[in-house]
Amino acid sequence: MASISERIQAVEQAKTENFLELVKIAKLDPSKSFQYANLRGVNFSDCDLGGFNFTGSALSGANFSGCKISDALFDNVQLQLPELSRADDYDLLIKNSVNRFLSQDEIRTKDNLKSLFESAIFHSSPEAQIPRNLPEKPLGRTILVSIGKAASSAAKAFETHWDGPLDGLVLTPYGMGEPSDRFEVIEAGFPVPDGNALSAAGKIQNLISNLTEDDLVVLLLSPGATALTAAPIGDITLSELSDLNRRLLSVGASLSDMNLVRSYLTVHGCGRLANDAYPAQLVALVIHDGPADSIAQVGSSLTSAVNVTSNEVAEILLRHRIDTPISVDSVLKNPDLTPPSPGAPCFQGTTTKVVTSWDSMLEYFSDSEVLEGTEIVNLGALEGQAQNMAEEFANRCRAVIAERHPHPVLLVSGGEATVDYSGGGIGQGGRNAEFLLSLAIALDGQAGVSAIAVDTDGHDGTMDAAGAFMSPTTLARARASNIDPQTFLRQRNSFYFFQQLDDLIETGPTGTDLSDLRAILIEPVS
């Protein structure tokens, strides 16, 4: 066998710079010789590194362009993730790394939670619930106006089962509209209104004006309706209203605060739409993303009196330190622009009915045989910063574990968290993914705790996924793949974090929106 000095000399005299050829010349063992080695800046380009063990090695600045690396080991190496990601089969490496740590029990838990979520969504969908809640036919015309994230699927469910003439309009966020032969479909800005939202408000006004008491207006309202019906009232411009919404978003204002402000400052908000449709009968079928007793905080505020005063709206804006233009101040001080009172005649002929809600979805979720023997704790609709909520849930999990239950416990909650982007970051990831990443960090590998956090419309913020799954090995799997959880959290890049772990929950558009669902399963640990 050649001595070390002879092998060094052979490498120095070699007429190639190809890494694999140099390894052969030096007679090195790929499975042993490169652990904890200093390989900074080495050019691995176009090499098949299958069988190499780089555990603990320093690889910063190395060139992996065009490499095959999926069968190599990179545990605890020193390098930047983008450097390794230039390899041809980087995605396969990540999948292999994940599979080395993901147990069959975790896979089964992930599949069960995802299946439960999808089943509950289907049973709570407009397709399943609206046909069961059709109003009686009127003597006159029937006008259908469907507004919100689920507007297209709700309108389709209604028209499929409605036997008679029908005119109407569908207003939904960009990317959520479906073609219709009977209705005009308008896609508009959400959650910040734009020109299309303003145009749609005018068309709705034309549809519901000059009706008689023999006519029927059917409103199909789903989450997002308040933001989409965004024609500003008084002298407020669309630009001013949009800027106000953006600033409320940027400071992390709660969904209820945002809805109250937008409702009061728009021509159809706070029951003004019901007043415009009067004296026609008005039936609002609501897809609600919260408990039934909070109905006035969603799109149904178009048809119901909202118990909010101009002083309370001003207090919300002051609390969030939002400077308001003169036009907004004028509306808040103008008694002629006050919304109709609860006793106004327009509300006497109005019926508002919740046809499906987060509560009903939870009932389907809870009744599943998969959860037989599991204690389900419904925490209701919650709001707050995603990272703060994750800390609170981590404490709840530890408290449940300390109680040493003999059976699994499932903590379920709805409501929407918020993410504060004021500190910068990439912003690739929604509130649910950020919640789960924060929860994983807070739990630090706590055994027995798994969770999903998903947006029921199928899109978690900017993510092309409903949300994600977290298991006790989330952090370990990430670190084994050189993915630093804290870095991704600081960058607000939770989507890419869970994508690399193959732990996104992807459903595609669901046709409904019943708030978010956080389901945390705590299993007994021996």
Instruction: Note poorly predicted spans.
Output: none
Main sheet record: 6 strands, parallel
Structural class: alpha/beta
Q: Residue-averaged pLDDT, rounded? A: 86
Q: Tell me the total number of β-strands.
A: 14
Give the helix tally: 20
Provide the β-strand percentage band: 5-15%
The helix content, as a percent range, equals 25-40%
| Spatial strand order of the main sheet | 3-2-1-4-5-6
Describe the structure.
By secondary structure, the chain is of the alpha/beta class. It is built from 20 helices and 14 strands. The protein has helices at residues 4-13, 19-25, 81-84, 90-99, 104-123, 126-129, 151-161, 195-208, 225-228, 238-250, 255-264, 272-277, 310-319, 326-333, 358-366, 386-402, 431-443, 474-480, 485-490, 494-500; strands at 142-147, 167-173, 184-188, 216-221, 281-288, 350-357, 375-381, 384-385, 409-414, 417-418, 449-455, 467-470, 504-505, 516-522. A 6-stranded parallel beta sheet has the order 3-2-1-4-5-6, sandwiched between helices. The protein has a 6-stranded mixed beta sheet with strand order 7-9-14-11-12-13, sandwiched between helices. It has a two-stranded parallel ribbon with strand order 8-10. Strand 1 (142-147), helix 7 (151-161) and strand 2 form a beta-alpha-beta unit. Helix 11 packs across helix 13 (310-319) and helix 13 packs antiparallel against helix 14. The radius of gyration is 28 Å and the shape is elongated.
